[in-house]
Each structure stands twice: as structure tokens, then as C-alpha cells.
Amino acid sequence: MIHLTGAAKMLSISPIPAFSDNYIWHLQQGDEHWVVDPGEAEPVVKALRGASLNGILITHHHLDHTGGITSLFKQYQCPVLGPASVEGVTTPLTGGGGVTVLGMPLGVCNIPGHTLDHLALILREPVSERSVQTHLFCGDTLFAAGCGRLFEGTPEQMFHSLAKLSTLDATTRVYCAHEYTLGNLHFAKIVEPGNTAIEQRLSSCQALRDANKPTLPSTIAQELATNPFLRCKVPEVIKSAAHHAGQPHPSTLDQVTIFAILREWKDQF
Fold first, then answer.
1. Which residues contact 90 (CB under 8 A, 6 or more apart)?
2. Known catalytic residue: 61?
3. Are 60 and 81 in contact (CB under 8 A)?
4. Is 243 a catalytic residue?
5. pLDDT, mean of residues 122-129
6. Is 116 exposed, middle or buried (CB count within 10 Å of its CB: 0-12, 13-18, 19+)?
7. Pairing with 155, which of 9, 36, 142, 164 sits 20 to 30 Å away (CA)?
8. Is 117 a catalytic residue?
9. Is the confidence at residue 104, as pLDDT, over 90?
10. Active-site residue, selected from the candidate residues 26, 33, 37, 60
11. Which pLDDT score is estimated for 9?
12. Which of 26, 33, 61, 62 is flagged as catalytic?
């Protein structure tokens, strides 16, 4: 559980496990509770422990992120914010816009690739008069050491969506929706075997999983250092991708092509 002291009350962000490897993120400040991507309702109700649910945030339309909306809305009559394409959304969100959640600004960014309606939700928490902690809820687009599959979008769309997220402040906390970290790091190690940061992260994340603890959230700094999908201009990553694809001239491949090779490679990994 992450506790960060804001100007008024303490913000708590904690994972609610769902299905086999999903995380529903639970945001609490005082008596106010919000959840992100509730694929199931029952784990949310249990986590609330009798408290009321004040709102639901949705990143995209897949059922393992939206399946609990109907039941939760019926029980709590709370607003549901997310893409207009999602059944049950009461307040449609669009990229470039923003709303206030828990008294804090929540920015919205279009990040197509995994799905065409995918949104990044960026909560900016004031922790002092001069300091802001950014929290990124990125659904199935950016994973710890990985990225989502391309179910609807193109490699180019996903590459540019990830590029947008990579420009967030390095200390931004990354809350993705699945516990895929170890598998992603094993792939990253094959792509970039000379990267010691990957080995170090793999060791620390293995220890967390051995203790039955989540490996999330990560940070943008960690992703830039160890996520191959954000490192498509790194020579060793380029060389590995070209070798996998049977391309004898790596220098002729642009970053989108490298990304596409990596994504196809990971699909078969």
C-alpha cells in the first residue's frame, strides 16, 4: 500500500487483486473511495469494508476492467468516468481533458494501441507547496517492463502512446492493471542481456513475489531503464530485434519497426 501525505488528508493507493493477475486500484482519501478498472465487483465491496464507493475510473472497454461496473453502480449509485465506448460510463472522458478526483486534478490522455479507446489517467497529488507526486493509471498500455498486446491498434499507435507516457516526470508512479512483471523482465533480459538494471530489477521483483507482494507500482524512471519497449533506440535492443527478425542491417530499421518486432517477439515468448 502506498501512503502519501497531501496538503489536507492522506492519499492511499492500494491494489485489490482480481481474477488470476488483475489489480483493481483503490484510491482512498479520508472517507472518500474511488476504484480504477473494477473487472469484478465482489473484491471491491470486500475492500471497502462497509464504506461507500464515491466513483469509478475506467481506462478501456475490456471486460476484465469493466465487468464490475453494473453491480457496483447498482449498489453505490456512484459516477463512472471513462471512455464513451464503455457501457455504464456516466461521465465520458476524452484525451486532453481533465476532471477533479479526490480534490486533485486528473488529466486524461488518449493512448490507443491495446484498444482504440484506451485512456491514461494522470492524477497529480500536491504533497507540499512546491512538490507534486504524479500517479499514472495506464490500464493495459504500459506494463512494468512491458506493454500490452495490440488487439485493435497498430504498432505505430502503441509506440507513440508509450512515447507520450515516457515523457512524464521520472518519479511518476506507474499503476498498471496486471501482475506481469516477472515474465516481462525475463523477456527484457533476453532482448538486452547486457543491461544490469534488468537483472537487479528481476531479483528484487522475484523477492516481492516470493513474499506474495505486488511488484507495482513502478516508476517512469524504472521503465526507461529496463523496459525494452521504451528502449527502441538503444543499440543492443536494436541489434537483438534485428537478429530475431533476420534483418542483416539493423541501422536501416526505424524505432517503430523495432517496436513492432519486439511486440511480435513477445507475443510468441
1. 73, 79, 80, 81
2. no
3. no
4. no
5. 94
6. middle
7. 36
8. no
9. yes
10. 60
11. 74
12. 62
- Residue 254 labelled as part of a binding site: no
* pLDDT number for residue 1: 47
Tell me if residue 140 is catalytic: yes
- Is 186 annotated to bind a ligand? Reply is no
Pairing of strands 142-143, 132-139: unpaired
Read off the pLDDT of residues 41-71 as tens digits, 9 standing for 90 and up: 999 999 999 999 999 999 999 999 999 999 9
Does the pLDDT at position 8 exceed 70? no
pLDDT over 80 at 247, yes or no: yes
Distance CA 34, CA 225 (A): 31
Phi and psi of 124, rounded to 5°? Answer: -110, 110
Which residue type is seen at 189? K
Q: Is the pLDDT of residue 4 over 80?
A: no
> What local confidence, expressed as pLDDT, does residue 39 receive?
98
Helices (H), 54-172: 63-66, 69-76, 155-166
Q: Which of 254, 263, 264, 261 has its CA nearest to residue 233? A: 254
Q: Is the pLDDT of residue 74 over 90?
A: yes
Catalytic position from the list 114, 117, 118, 135: 114
> Is the pTM for the entire model greater than 0.85?
yes
Q: Is 64 annotated as a binding residue?
A: yes
Average pLDDT, the chain: 96
Q: Which of 26, 61, 65, 135 is catalytic?
A: 65
Q: Which of 26, 37, 64, 135 is catalytic?
A: 64
pLDDT of 171-196, one tens digit each? 999 999 999 999 999 999 999 999 99
The neighbour count for residue 208, using CB atoms within 10 Å, is 15
Q: Note if 249 is an active site residue.
A: no
Q: How far apart are CA 266 and CA 214, in angstroms?
A: 22
Is residue 26 flagged as an active site residue?
no
d(CA 110, CA 118): 6
Q: Any known ligand binding at 33? A: no
Domains in the chain: ranges and CATH = 2-267 (3.60.15.10)
